[in-house]
Amino acid sequence: MGVPTKEPTIETKAVEDTKSIGNTNSPKTKKKRLTTTHRISLGDVTPNNLGQLKRLNSVLFPVNYSEKFYKDVLEVGEFAKLAYFNDACVGAVCCRKEPIQGTIPEQTKLYIMTLGVLAPYRNLGLGTTLLTHILHHATCGTPTAPKFIEIFLHVQTSNEEALAFYQKYGFEIIGTVEGYYKKITPPDAYILSKKLVKNI
């Protein structure tokens, strides 16, 4: 496994109660609290770990992404990240920049192409860490990327879990694309959008 470019580590604690059996008045039947610390970190996508991203996407999404997809991912800097849980690569986000033609000065949207976490590691804060990282950098801008006016994505109309997740962070349904997906049912997708600049 390639060594990720580490960012500040987020630590989460899981507490497990071991229930005793027998006389609840006995001192020996007290609950034991076992505390473990989980480390969540993000890493850059590089040529050395691109194979990890390909393997993740093959498990997470029913789509075969082209070599151009992966070439473009290497060019977007902070807008493509791998997520690590205790140093195991378990999730990723990939975005692309979409200039709006005809705007002066040129304005840019950010499109979330993929964001996913392996099933055993969901509901542990990894998806939130990935999305908040993207929102932060899309809002504040970076030396190589201007401030984006909007961030958007497509979500399958039946994917209630994903819809709830994005709506929690201020995304709104602004349209529906019939037949967006070619190999999955239902094939329709919602367009979800979050405005990052007011009055547009």
Task: Round the Cα radius of gyration to an integer and report it.
Answer: 20 Å
**What profile does the largest beta sheet have?**
8 strands, mixed
Low-confidence stretches: 1-35
Shape: globular
CATH topology: Aminopeptidase
Q: How do the SSEs run, as a string of H and E?
A: EEHHEEEHEHEE
Oligomer: single chain
Class by alpha and beta content: alpha+beta
Q: How many helices does DSSP assign?
A: 4
Query: What is the total domain count?
Result: 1
Cα distance, first to last residue?
Answer: 43 Å
Main features:
200 residues; alpha+beta; Aminopeptidase; 8-stranded mixed β-sheet; 4 helices; 8 strands; 21% helix; globular; disordered N terminus
Walkthrough of the structure:
It is a single chain. The chain has an 8-stranded mixed sheet, sandwiched between helices. The protein is built from 4 helices and 8 strands. The protein has one domain: 3-Layer(aba) Sandwich (Aminopeptidase), CATH 3.40.630. The chain has 200 residues and is of the alpha+beta class. A hairpin with a 2-residue loop joins strand 3 and strand 4.
Layout of SSEs?
Layout: E1 10-18, E2 32-44, H1 50-60, H2 67-73, E3 80-85, E4 88-100, E5 107-117, H3 126-140, E6 150-156, H4 160-168, E7 172-177, E8 189-195
Parallel strand pairs: 5-6
Antiparallel strand pairs: 1-2, 2-3, 3-4, 4-5, 6-8, 7-8
Concise structural overview:
The chain has 200 residues and is α+β, with helices and mostly antiparallel strands.
